[in-house]
């Protein structure tokens, strides 16, 4: 059977069409995933990073708009040149009176509105705005990658909890069976029918069964604790697994080349690495553009007066264009370019590293799923054989042909076969989840 994976909405991929929020402490897998997606702190952090990137984009786009400022300045001077210029600006020059060499103190108030506009910055504003836009897309891909990992972690933890529950049930049944046999053996020992060694063997087996029960109960608690963390629940909130449903085994995975092509086309971590490389390219272009001239236009409107009284008779307008180019900046521009080049190289190598890691994860997940499916098939045969062997040994024991030790060996073999079956089945389900994560399935 060939199984293909593609990016689909979460509700559809989980097979759930209605609201799945759990109103109680009992969660199905679908409800656990939805709770994690709604309440996990890491996802909320990713959302805030998207908002930060969007704000950074808005900041970059601000360079394409005029910048308008208002100001109010005050000056006082008895310097003849400055005082003379302030008197002229205030439109109150009188050539027939006053000593221009000793003007005394002159006050000047200037309310002003200034507008500036960047005409050309070598393309820096454009490249930086493109980098900011790519930054928003990169943040969205980071959130998608976080969702992909989170759903896989919840799925793996949930299946781990179900496996522990089934193992706990097997261990409890083993305890009941061994305890029953021990009680009967003690009666038979008192009657002189069985040996003391048989009773001791049963007590040993009971201790081992109780030890296995303690370990499986602890595994359930660990799975619950992990799921609480993933779901954003505090330690005092309750979490229980819904029902006792045994999920069906997944199908065999598709060929590696087909899976790889799918992963390379959609995996959010690889797409994000490519976005980061594209950002580095834009930043390098912006750094190189600093070598080009810069041109800015400005216009200023205001008035000068000896007090704060405004009069249109004293207003004035200044406008102009300024062009500048860095002739020598102490090698700062060259170093910025060199830094951007190294950042681009590192980003490109990150793309290659991410692809190699995804290929390895995908191959490991494919092999892990196939191995788990093979183990599940073998374990089913082993369970049937162990149960039939136990049935035959039990009949022989009742007929007095075999000892209780042989019966115990058959019962232990049956319980171990069941535990291997449980482990193989849930290992296959977890391996399928790992394969989906490696494909970038959950976005």
TrEMBL record:
Coiled-coil intervals: none
Keywords, ordered alphabetically: Cell outer membrane, Membrane, Signal, Transmembrane, Transmembrane beta strand, Transport
Predominant location category: membrane
Signal peptide extent: 1-23
Domain of life where this protein originates: Bacteria
InterPro entries: OMP_efflux, TolC-like
Cellular localization per UniProt: Cell outer membrane
Keyword Signal: yes
Family: Belongs to the outer membrane factor (OMF) (TC 1.B.17) family.
Protein name in the entry: TolC family protein
């Amino acid at each position: 059977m060939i199984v293909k994976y593609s990016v689909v909405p979460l509700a559809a991929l989980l097979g759930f069409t209605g609201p799945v929020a759990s109103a109680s402490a009992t969660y199905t897998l679908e409800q656990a995933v939805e709770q994690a997606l709604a309440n996990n702190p890491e996802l909320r952090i990713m959302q805030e990073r998207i908002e930060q990137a969007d704000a950074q984009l808005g900041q970059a786009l601000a360079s394409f708009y005029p910048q308008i400022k208002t100001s109010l300045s005050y000056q006082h001077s008895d310097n003849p040149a400055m005082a003379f210029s302030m008197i002229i600006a205030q439109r109150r020059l009188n050539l027939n009176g006053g000593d221009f060499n000793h003007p005394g103190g002159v006050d000047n108030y200037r309310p002003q509105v200034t507008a500036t506009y960047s005409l050309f910055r070598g393309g820096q504003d454009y490249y930086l705005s493109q980098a900011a836009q790519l930054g928003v897309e990169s943040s969205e891909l980071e959130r998608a990658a976080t969702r992909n990992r989170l759903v896989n972690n919840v799925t793996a933890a949930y299946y781990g909890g179900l496996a522990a529950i089934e193992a706990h049930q097997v261990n409890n049944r083993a305890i009941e069976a061994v305890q029953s046999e021990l009680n009967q053996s003690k009666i038979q020992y008192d009657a002189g029918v069985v040996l003391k060694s048989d009773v001791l063997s049963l007590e040993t087996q009971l201790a081992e069964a109780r030890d296995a029960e303690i370990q499986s109960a602890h595994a359930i608690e660990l799975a619950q604790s992990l799921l609480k963390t993933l779901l954003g629940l505090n330690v005092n909130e309750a979490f229980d697994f819904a029902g006792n449903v045994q999920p069906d085994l997944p199908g065999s995975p598709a060929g590696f080349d087909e899976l790889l092509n799918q992963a390379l086309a959609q995996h959010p971590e690889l797409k994000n690495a490519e976005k980061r490389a594209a950002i580095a390219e834009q930043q390098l272009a912006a750094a190189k553009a600093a070598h080009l001239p810069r041109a800015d236009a400005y216009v200023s409107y205001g008035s000068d007066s000896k007090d704060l009284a405004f009069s249109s008779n004293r207003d004035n307008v200044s406008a102009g264009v300024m062009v500048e180019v860095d002739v020598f900046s102490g090698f700062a521009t060259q170093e910025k370019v060199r830094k951007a080049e190294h950042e681009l190289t590192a980003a490109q190598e990150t793309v290659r590293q991410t692809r190699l890691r995804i290929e390895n994860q995908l191959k490991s997940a494919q092999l892990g799923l196939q191995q788990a499916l093979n183990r599940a098939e073998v374990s089913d045969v082993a369970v049937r054989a162990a149960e039939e062997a136990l049935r035959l040994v039990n009949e022989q024991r009742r007929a007095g042909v075999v000892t209780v030790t042989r019966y115990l060996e058959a019962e232990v073999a049956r319980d171990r076969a069941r535990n291997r079956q449980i482990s193989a089945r849930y290992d296959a389900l977890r391996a399928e989840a790992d394969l989906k994560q490696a494909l970038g399935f959950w976005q």
